[in-house]
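sry for the spam today, last one i promise. struct tokens for design, 457 residues
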């Protein structure tokens, strides 16, 4: 596929069914699974969070994924155009996604920068320690030094920009075919090692056995936010990617395999990280640094640990880039399609703006940690909450209302059932998308707003 280009160009199709699935799965599988899922679970009560995550995944995530790619394939347009072509007034939902894209990539690039730094550290053998204190210092020392961390953040955005400028098809699609399975295999190996560490059992229990007393509104809000973030749902990415999906191919297969793959990787990351937290003396609620401090200790406990460490961080970087390009694409295609912008110029300007927005997020780990907005949130946390818990969630809510009620669930089912494909679960999907997703997401969203408001008061 060529880049997501201007409207008067003939739309390219994904080279193959696998191509589409790989690209969409590439967007879904990223730091959300490898980095965020384990630490969110760790900070939100472990099994309780995972249980609610699953509940939301099945009742909200799966139905919305199918809704998004169906809308995209039907209209053959990226998000803004897709909504507009069915109902003019709804184009703003696509616009909301573009705004979300700026914030989410600003924050994502902070962590992407950490990953690049860790690739280099791993290559130079600088991560081989079993000592939580030493590993904590390496991470802490890096994220708090403003010059270096901002430079790496910029480097991550530069890589993202270069890939988007070159068009995402050939190179990335081809590389995905190797990198994604490789990531999967290496995650299995790391998880096995972590699970066989002495004392790992406590971690497995923590991750998989829900402690119902830990469930509160904030756990629920974060679990839903994590579903949206991890599946790349709620900002138009999947609508846009769906628009490149071949008219003849099977939306059901794509709509189920992407969330499944995404979830397997998240669980593997949880199984690699949390048992090790308990076995090796780390802190489950350590927050965003969890993966960066815990996994190097696992590698140090492995045969050929150095090699695994290097491979792992390279694969994380790849997974992060296949997600970040999808975020940047949403922003770029808006300015190219809607504002007639020049693709190269728009991409560069947008990347620079996102970089500038990202600097405060990066600095909030160090010199700007005391600078808070909206009560007690530093910039990084603010971007994180704003995107996962408010913007993506709103986007998901609007998507369900749009597909369920405005465009009409029956029309969507018709699109899914083209070419004689039978959608056996259609009545359930229709019920979920019309009657469950909108009220459920509204309730959680209402509470996200309430959380924000009470934190300012
Ligand atoms: N799903 C990606 C991840 O898990 C993040 C993402 C969110 C990408 C929203 C695109 C849009 O890392």
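last one done:
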């Amino acid at each position: 596929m060529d880049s997501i280009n201007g409207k008067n160009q003939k739309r390219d199709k994904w080279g193959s069914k696998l191509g589409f699935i790989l690209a969409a799965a590439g967007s879904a599988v990223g730091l959300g699974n490898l980095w965020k899922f384990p630490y969110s679970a760790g900070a939100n009560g472990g099994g309780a969070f995972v249980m609610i995550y699953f509940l939301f995944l099945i009742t909200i995530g799966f139905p919305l994924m199918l809704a998004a790619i169906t809308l995209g394939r039907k209209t053959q347009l990226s998000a803004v155009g897709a909504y507009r072509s069915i109902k003019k007034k709804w184009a703003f939902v696509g616009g909301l996604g573009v705004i979300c894209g700026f914030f989410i990539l600003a924050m994502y690039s902070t962590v992407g920068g950490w990953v690049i730094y860790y690739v280099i550290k791993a290559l130079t053998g600088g991560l081989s320690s079993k000592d939580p204190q030493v590993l904590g210092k390496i991470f802490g020392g890096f994220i708090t030094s403003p010059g270096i961390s901002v430079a790496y953040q910029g480097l991550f955005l530069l890589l993202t920009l270069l890939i988007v400028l070159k068009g995402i098809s050939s190179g990335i699609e081809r590389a995905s075919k190797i990198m994604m399975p490789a990531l999967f295999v290496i995650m299995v190996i790391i998880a096995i090692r972590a699970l066989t560490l002495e004392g790992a059992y406590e971690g497995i229990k923590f991750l998989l056995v829900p402690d119902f007393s830990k469930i509160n509104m904030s756990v629920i809000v974060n679990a839903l936010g994590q579903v949206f973030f991890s599946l790349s749902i709620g900002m138009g990415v999947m609508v846009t990617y769906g628009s490149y999906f071949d008219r003849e191919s099977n939306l059901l297969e794509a709509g189920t395999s992407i969330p499944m793959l995404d979830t397997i990787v998240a669980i593997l990351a949880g199984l690699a990280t949390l048992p090790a937290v308990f076995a090796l003396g780390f802190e489950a609620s350590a927050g965003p640094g969890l993966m960066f401090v815990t996994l190097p200790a696992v590698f140090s406990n492995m045969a050929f640990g150095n090699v695994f460490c290097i491979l792992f961080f390279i694969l994380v970087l790849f997974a992060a880039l296949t997600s970040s390009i999808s975020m940047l694409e949403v922003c770029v295609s808006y300015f190219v399609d809607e504002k007639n912008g020049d693709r190269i110029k728009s991409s560069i300007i947008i990347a620079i703006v996102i970089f500038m927005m990202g600097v405060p997020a990066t600095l909030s780990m160090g010199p700007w940690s005391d600078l808070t907005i909206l009560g007690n949130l530093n910039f990084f946390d603010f971007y994180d909450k704003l995107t996962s818990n408010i913007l993506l969630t709103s986007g998901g809510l609007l998507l369900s209302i749009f597909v369920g009620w405005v465009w009409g669930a029956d029309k969507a089912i018709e699109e899914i059932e083209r070419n004689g494909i039978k959608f056996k679960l259609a009545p359930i999907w229709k019920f979920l998308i019309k009657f469950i997703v909108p009220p459920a997401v509204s309730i959680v969203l209402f509470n996200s707003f309430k959380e924000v408001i009470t934190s300012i008061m």
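The radius of gyration is 21 Å. ok im logging off now
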